[in-house]
Amino acid sequence: MKCNKENFRLTLLYYFRKGKSAVQRAKKLPDVYGNEFLKERQCRNWFEIFRSEDFSLKDDLRSGRPVELNDVAIKTITEAVRHITARDFADKLNVSHIAIERH
């Protein structure tokens, strides 16, 4: 059964409001959802968030700008310089070498 994060969190919120523990839910819900369900630590984290009276089910915005790599620039550089390291590539595009390696 495919479920998104918000559906899992809604299920956890339901059990939180019923007074169940995070550990109980982490052990029982995989029977229904399979291995797709959250791990025990994630369940505990969400129950902690609910205890602080934050009932939002969406992810918080993260700081930093998501890396957007320009495919045209990448192609141009690779055609001009066949033997280039990921770090040199990253310097030319002003991104991290990890972003280059993942692309």
Stated plainly, the CATH topology of the largest domain is called: Arc Repressor Mutant, subunit A
Estimate nothing, just give the exact number of structural domains: 2
Structural class: mainly alpha
Cα shape = elongated
How would you portray this structure in words?
The structure is a single chain. The protein is mainly α and 103 residues long. The chain has two domains: 5-51, Arc Repressor Mutant, subunit A (Orthogonal Bundle), CATH 1.10.10; 71-102, no CATH class. Helices cover 58% and strands 0% of the residues. The chain contains seven helices and no strands. It has helices at residues 5-17, 22-28, 30-33, 40-51, 71-80, 86-93, 97-102. Helix 1 (5-17) packs across helix 4 (40-51) and helix 2 packs antiparallel against helix 4. It starts with a helix and ends with a helix. The model has no long low-confidence stretch (mean pLDDT 81).
